[in-house]
Amino acid sequence: MKLFLLLILFFQLFIYAETSMEKNNSLPILFSIDTTEYTSKEFPKEFETLPNEIKLLFISKYLFYKILLDSIKEEKILYFEEIQKNIKLKKEENQRIGKILTPIEKLFFEKKITANTIAYYEVLKKDTNITQKVKNFYHLHKKEFFYPKRVELSLITVKDKKTAKKILKELKEKKNDIHFFSKVAKKYSLLKSNLNGGYIGYVVEKGLGKKKFNILYKNEVNQIVPKILDHKGYYSIAYLLSKSKSQQKTLSELSEKIKMKLLKKKIDEWKQEKFQTRKKEVKVKLNKI
Length: 289
Description:
Layout: H1 2-13, E1 29-33, E2 36-39, H2 52-70, H3 73-78, H4 80-97, H5 103-124, H6 130-140, E3 146-147, E4 150-158, H7 161-172, H8 178-188, E5 199-204, H9 205-208, H10 210-217, E6 223-224, E7 229-231, E8 234-244, E9 247-248, H11 251-279, E10 284-286
Antiparallel strand pairs: 1-2, 1-10, 3-9, 4-5, 4-8, 6-8, 7-8
Helix pairs in contact: 1-2, 2-5, 2-11, 4-5, 5-11, 6-11
């Protein structure tokens, strides 16, 4: 869905497709905004390794944030403290789970948080009935906010047990370093979790089976589980990030998350409106790749 939306955005941004070369260093000009021209030197080196289709998606995403954020400079000042707080919280969360951002992810990291924070507070202040809406939503879905016992995991999953044993030995030498675990997961893990350095989030007993779940739950947190887990011909090494007893989440605990959920559509609409308004005021020229 995100890929589809970015493609739509790319075609919206358009308009001319022609090849041009930068006079000074012969790098192709990828696009321009008014009189400012952009080449690949503006972006991380890994940009050049991307397929052309992904390059176009990257450019459309860059243009979206560039044009949007240029249109809300006053709001960036107004919500500076909230933006910095959210950036700090997200960095701490990435640090905790060992997530290592790629250069391209780093480029968009603060831009995305800035745009979302501003949009959230701008939409929030216009919804005078949000507190009651949150209460109603919580009580309507209260049963869904009962959480069973769970474990929070990162996994390295491989096809053969010999490789798993070799990796486990290598990991033990690093004494439970989650960042090293994340690097190894990106290198070896066969599942999509390798995109997040092995991080898969929370798992409950029903998803694992009682025996495997108990092995994980009895382990110390922030440590590698010493037993290799096997499932349907795959072998996994687990890092236990946290574990929680069953609990009923309270309204106060979930209030902010519920607000975000209820306001998400309006937040997206607010960003699109600001982007579209500003796009009409600038000249965007997109060249062939």
